[in-house]
Amino acid sequence: MSNTNKRIFLSPPFVGAAERAAVRGAFDSGYVAPCGPQVDEFERRLAKLAGRKYAVAVSSGTAAIDLLMAELGVDEKWTVVAPTLTFVATVGPAFHRGAKLVFVDSDATGNIDVSLLEEALESLRVKLGSSRGRATLSDSKSTLKDSKILVVGVDLYGDCCDYGAIAKLCRKFGAVFVTDAAEAVGATRDGRPAGSAGLAGIYSFNGNKIVTTSGGGAIVTDDRGLAERAKKRSQQSREKCVWYEHKEVGYNYRLSNILAAIGLAQLDRLPAILKKRKANYDWYAGNFKGDLLSPAPKANHWLTVAVLSSRRERDKLLRRFEAADIEARPVWKPLHLQPVFAKCRVFGGEVAEALFERGVCLPSGTGLKSGDFARIAACLK
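RE: above sequence
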């Protein structure tokens, strides 16, 4: 199958005149470093979007996770529990810090199976009780001192995991809960915005995300101390002196003011972006004769996922797309199948394995046009 049209990408950045004007404004303001009014405003708007009190804009979603690990003191004494069906960055910082990793299978939505999560936490024999709701460092000192279990909930492909059920389990077993909402900016579940659950949430603004800053991320939290310390660590942990004074070694993780300007323009367009992504999903629902991974009604529909009847059929579809110069890819390969994590414990795994064997992430970009859908439809047939 040949064509002379340009390549259709899976989820390319959707930027234009508004973003260019925002960058010009940042240049004209004189702030081009990792500080400035655009960063401050971007953080304010992110906190509001997440239903949180504070946000810290950083260079990537991975940096945001790493800063949370630094805040908690994650090391070889910790066990980090995460869904197996996710991108490696969810657990990468924990791996580098020497933590033990435990993976949990998916439910029918692709998100973490809460019943298996309970089984995993039960097996770890955590016996700290807590009746607290949303965790904070200031009111959870005893829990954080004694607990060495961290649960990372992931909002798969823009569909929020079950925040309420996961938070309840973490309180029951004394585990710390954070949300990896890297793929879910703008989504909600049961009236709660993506990233609003647990001690903190993280966002990603990579080039392929719903909202992009080219590269970037953020921490969102209700804990003022956590936010202040994360911001300080993201700027090399410099003390408030006229000279460079350091009581700890930090990181160069702060977001550029230029990139924050792009993010602000993107947030202005977020409602329209979400509407278009939902329209993309609805088009696939009406034009693909097989099964789609069904997200919750208020997902952000970052990527639409087709579930084929077999790996053979999955690979045939991927070959048709590639021949037509259209980007598509399998769903995330489960982490427990990755060679680097081969010795890690996993609870279940069959559902995630089946989704990997049969699932295809379909082109879902905000800028898809009727001609693009015609080319996609020819492959689906």
